[in-house]
Design goal:
The protein is of the alpha+beta class and about 400 residues long. It has helices at about 10-15, 50-60, 65-80, 85-95, 150-165, 170-190, 190-200, 205-230, 265-290, 295-315, 325-330, 335-350, 355, 360-395, and strands spanning about 25, 30, 35-40, 45-50, 145, 235-245, 245-255. Helix content is about 55%, strand content about 10%. The strands form two sheets. Strands 1, 2, 3 and 4 form a four-stranded antiparallel β-sheet that branches. Strands 5-6-7 form a three-stranded antiparallel β-sheet. β6 (about 235-245) and β7 form a beta hairpin. The model is unreliable at about 110-135 (pLDDT under 50).
Length: about 400
């Protein structure tokens, strides 16, 4: 099967373009008033955005359809046909970006905004070129990052083979039921747990132990993102440590998160970290409830239970860059959700006619996210205020 378009008009009509296996296409996503699709070259060519019409054409370039067949489908969908000049423009753009089979991989570049509308006067290259190696993550005294494993995807695959059975409904449903029961206990006995937390901060040894366990929970949080993404066919690009002194955290980068098979799979991947934080607390909750412990240890476990629950639930707040924001973005089917919401709400508040030009789906999504973000902030502020009042009441003499 030929991968380079022939020069003649007849040859162009019969050409069957095929995207390289490393090219990924996203679902339709809202961005402002527009609908876009993301295209990513996982071999290092970066990513960019295209509109629905361009995506319609590119998604059908699987090597089985000729340009004539793709053009006929396009004409039925949009009521117009593409001429040879427009086809040449599209093929040159894809070829110079290294997206077509037989074309070289481009030098890694930052994300591009959109498909250019002007013809690219460069023929589709056919000779492969080497792809530069990714740079080593930056390191410094106060801030930096370092990779912990040479092949993060292989490491994640091994973890998935070891614990992936827990992601099946037979295991996950009872585990989530236990988590809900645990959080109900936390809600009912919050006052007792707050008192235990205050006591924990008066015991340096137990405080260090609890802090170490919470840090370990954050490491499991990051690995959980990678394992769930791997469960859904994703790839993990890096696992490492990132520091912004005095804070040192682990990170796990899912390379193709936005290109996983379904919106539900992406939501599961984003929520996996917080769920892992809560699962981590289950054995400590059991000890706190049922084990015969001395008062100091019992209080330390109670504090760990409260602090760990706050840590997990805080990650679900729908504000960037938290996991809750990624979940909200998927629920709304949007990219750059926060920025788009701010722009729309400002236009709507000024009664700008441009706000009415947004499609109904976009207006609904941005209003829902704006309201949800405000309610989430109000809940966080109320929780912080309640905690401060409770601690002050504990510390002040009666």
């Amino acid at each position: 099967m030929s991968t380079t378009p022939p020069g003649s008009a007849r040859g162009l009509d019969e050409y069957r373009p095929e995207l390289r296996p490393q090219v990924l296409l996203s679902d339709a996503l809202l961005q402002g008033a527009a609908t876009v699709h993301l295209i990513k070259d996982t071999s290092g060519g970066g990513s960019f955005k295209v509109g629905p019409k361009e995506h319609f054409l590119i998604a059908r370039m699987d090597g089985s359809r000729s340009l004539t067949e793709i053009g006929e489908e396009y004409a039925r969908e949009y009521g117009r046909r593409l001429d040879g000049a427009r086809w040449q423009q599209i093929l040159r753009m894809l070829g110079t970006r290294g997206l077509l089979a037989g074309a070289p991989s481009p030098t890694p570049t930052p994300e591009r905004a959109a498909v250019p509308t002007a013809p690219v006067p460069v023929p589709v290259p056919t000779a492969p070129v080497p792809v530069p190696t990714a740079p080593v993550p930056g390191r410094g005294l106060l801030r930096g990052s370092i990779r912990l494993v040479a092949d993060a995807d292989t490491t994640t695959d091994r973890l998935h083979r070891a614990v992936g059975f827990l992601l099946t409904p037979g295991w996950m449903v009872p585990l989530l039921a236990l988590v809900l029961a645990m959080e109900a206990v936390v809600a009912v006995r919050t006052g007792e747990l707050l008192d235990a937390t205050v006591e924990l901060f008066t015991n340096p040894v137990l405080l260090v132990g609890a802090a170490t366990l919470l840090w370990f929970s954050t490491a499991l949080h990051e690995l959980a993102h990678g394992v769930v993404a791997r469960h859904h066919g994703g790839t993990v690009a890096e696992i490492g440590l990132r520091w912004r002194l005095p804070v040192i955290i682990m990170y796990c980068t899912v390379d193709n998160y936005l290109y996983l098979g379904s919106r539900w799979q992406r939501i599961q991947t984003a929520a996996a970290g917080a769920v892992m934080n809560l699962l981590f607390l289950l054995p400590f909750c059991a000890l706190w409830l049922f084990a015969p412990l001395d008062t100091a240890t019992h209080d330390a476990l109670g504090a760990l239970l409260l602090l760990g629950s706050v840590q997990a639930l805080a990650m679900l707040v729908p504000l960037p860059p938290l996991d809750g924001y990624r979940i909200a973005s998927q629920l709304c089917g949007a990219t750059e959700l926060a920025a788009s919401t701010l722009v729309y709400l400002r236009l709507a508040a000024r009664r700008d006619p441009a706000a009415a030009g947004y499609p109904r789906r976009a207006r609904t999504a941005y209003r829902a996210y704006g309201l949800g973000a405000v309610l989430a902030l109000a809940a966080v502020l109320a929780a912080v205020l309640a905690a401060v009042v409770a601690v002050a009441h504990h510390l002040l003499p009666t």
